[in-house]
Amino acid sequence: MDEEARAVAATEPPPLPYSLRTRKKSIAFFWTIFVIDTLGQPLILYWTLWYLTDLSHNLVFSIVTACLGGISVFEYFYRLYNLFRKDSRARPLNARKSWLDFFHINFTIVWLILAIELIVGTVPAEPYVRLVAMVLPTVMFYFGSVFLTLDILRACGYKAPFRISSTPKGSTMPTALYVLIEDVVAVDGGGGQIYRYALRTRYLSSPFFRRMLFQMNCFWAGGSILVAAAITAIVFTVSEPVAFTLGWTLPFAWAGLWTIITIPWVQSDLRREKEAWQDNRGQGGIPYTDDVNAPSARTRLEAFEDHLPSFIPWFREKQAPPSEPSN
To answer: What transmembrane ranges does the database entry give (predicted)?
Structure first.
């Protein structure tokens, strides 16, 4: 029985050899350090140095920005090492040694943007407090715009203009969340190329899985842009101390809320995907191909699709009726 026949005969989607449950401690440790470094540290330094010392405002913000993002800098060079080393098992599938994954390319670009933003904001004798408060909203604007653009292009039928991680040039534009999961788990989570291959197998084999990721990406990317716009309006409206505090705290509040919504949503859809495969409705369209119009069972979001605004047609891929069970 060849690979395609085995995929058709399978009663469950191709498995993903990675579990977050066995990594709870390391995940909790990383996010604790990240929150302290990115949220606690700038706020504590700002409020204590600004109001409890005689340091100049310029020096206060020089200290704040110099101490900012230590864990992110470490993560950046850790990823770079893992992707570039000679015996790397983390780089994208079939990619050259010199090829960075899509997440790292965007990681580099956003760091350059933030560096310019922080320099412009802290160089004057009287720093632009509101501009420094825009660091996290800027990240939200950037990744939200990039990721939403990829899925709009996907919905419009465009092909990948260059290699996007493990997706070759000229292939169907991948949904951005698939690329993000692939890159982060493979490199930062230690899943390596084994995970990249397994995730790609699942992604190409399951139209339901692709549809779920497409919708989830629209939820996160679209939400990040809208919330970043709201935070920007607040930052440039309220007093500077409040603006600085809210500019650094509201993005975390948004991310926490979106995560709380996402977890049961994804768990529900993964159950629906498994049920669809057991009914032999998990596959459709051209086998082992990223067919945007492939039929699949309805996702959780599509149960409410009649309530979705008609002016955002890219929020979901074209829906075709599920294929009939094979005999």
So the answer is: 27-47, 59-78, 99-119, 131-153, 218-239, 245-266
Tell me the per-residue pLDDT of 51-107, one tens digit each, with 9 for 90 and over. 888 888 889 888 888 888 788 888 899 999 999 888 888 899 988 877 889 999 999
State the pLDDT at residue 285: 64
Question: Phi and psi dihedrals of 16, rounded to 5?
Answer: -110, 115
Q: Check if the beta carbon of residue 228 is closer than 8 Å to that of residue 140.
A: yes
The whole-angstrom separation of Cα 225 and Cα 232 is: 10
Amino acid letter, residue 67: C
Quote helix, strand, coil % in the chain, to nearest 5. 65, 0, 35
Distance CA 57, CA 127 (A): 7
The tally of domains found in the chain comes to 1
Per residue in 68-79, pLDDT tens? 878 888 889 999
Whether residue 64 lies inside any domain: the answer is yes
Q: Is residue 6 in a domain?
A: no
Tokens 């409410």, residue located: 304
DSSP per-residue string spanning 212-252: HHHHHHHHHHHHHHHHHHHHHHHHTTS-HHHHHHHHHHHHH
Q: How far is CA 88 from the centre of its chain?
A: 23
Residue at token pair 């470094």: 37
Q: What is the pLDDT of residues 113-166, one digit of tens each?
A: 999 999 999 888 899 999 999 999 999 999 999 999 999 999 999 999 999 999
3-state secondary structure of 159: strand
**Does residue 290 lie in a domain region?**
yes
Range of the domain at 92: 21-315
pTM: 0.85
